[in-house]
Specification:
This protein is α+β, with helices and mostly antiparallel strands and about 70 residues long. The protein is built from one helix and three strands.
Length: about 70
């Protein structure tokens, strides 16, 4: 299995979900990318997307993680 293709699909899915929820709420999600150093117990990266204090959503998140260990 091509992990790059799966990763790209899941990040695209995350973006489609966030875009749909932003359209409903009228406010933008904040983005926070993170990474874990190679060679540790867990390594990889991810993207956390958060909305807070919106017109429809009090608080919500759509997160992606790509880790191994």
């Amino acid at each position: 299995m091509d992990s790059t293709a799966v990763r790209d699909y899941l990040l695209g899915l995350q973006q489609r979900i966030v875009s749909a929820l932003e359209a409903v709420d009228g406010n933008a999600f904040l983005s926070d990318g993170w990474s874990r150093e190679p060679g540790g117990r867990l390594e990889g990266d991810g993207l956390s997307r958060l909305i807070e204090g919106g017109a429809v959503f009090e608080r919500g998140g759509v997160n992606f993680s790509h880790v191994k260990g």
